[in-house]
Design brief:
By secondary structure, the protein is of the alpha/beta class. The protein has helices at residues 18-30, 57-68, 85-94, 121-133, 162-180; strands spanning 5-10, 35-38, 71-76, 107-113, 137-138, 145-146. The structure holds flavin mononucleotide. Flavin mononucleotide binds next to helix 1.
Length: 182
């Protein structure tokens, strides 16, 4: 049987993004059992309902990538206590045209990442508000708020903090079990 595919979405476009580094580490942890695919958000024009009948090619490609995934993993920073606009834009694009949402009925998870101690709690739950409506079946436990993100990676971009690595491994294991249950 072919492996299930996890579509991974990073809510930051920053080159040295901590969220992207966490996402890549989780992808590595999950890659034994699953195909992992980072689905890029940076080329998606802002959603405009007028374009639904004549969608930009990047929207169409994005919607196809979302449909092709069996599960979704969101790794996001927090911007002003919510998810960054780039991630909300992607959620909206995938949700339309009306009645043709690419998100519905699949399992998902969210990991929020921040240099602050609160670990992006606000963005984690802000994302949950939208994706519950989109009918993504979100793993509820364990939750994952990665704080102190500026201190967990070495100069080579690899994680150096064993505690965080262990925490993310436990999250990846639970997420794998969550996906396999569907
Ligand atoms: C516009 C903006 C708003 C931000 N708001 C928050 C916030 O509400 N909470 C927080 O913990 N960090 C906030 N930050 C700091 C980010 O957590 C920090 O820039 C982080 O490195 C972004 O994630 P990244 O490394 O994945 O790009 C904000 C940063 C920006 C640029």
């Amino acid at each position: 049987m072919s492996k299930k595919t996890i579509g991974i979405f990073v809510g930051s476009l920053r080159k040295e993004s901590f969220s992207r580094k966490v996402a890549l580490l989780l992808a590595e942890m999950l890659s034994g059992k699953f195909e992992t695919r980072l689905i890029e958000l940076g080329e998606l024009a802002m959603y405009n309902q007028d374009l639904d009948d004549n969608a930009p090619p990047a929207w169409t490609a994005f919607r196809e990538s979302v449909k092709a995934a069996d599960a979704f993993l969101f790794v996001t920073p927090e911007y002003n206590r919510t998810i960054p606009a780039v991630l909300k834009n992607a959620l909206d694009i995938g949700s339309r045209p009306y009645g043709q949402s690419a998100w519905s009925g699949k399992p998902g998870g969210v990991v929020s990442v921040s240099p602050s101690k609160m670990g992006g709690f606000g963005s984690n739950h802000n994302l949950r508000q939208a994706v519950v409506f989109l009918n993504i079946f979100m793993m509820q436990q364990p939750e994952a708020y990665v704080g102190g993100a500026a201190d967990i990676f070495g100069a080579d971009g690899k994680i150096k903090d064993d505690g965080t690595r262990g925490f993310l491994q436990a999250y990846a294991d639970a997420f794998a079990a969550w996906i396999e249950g569907f």
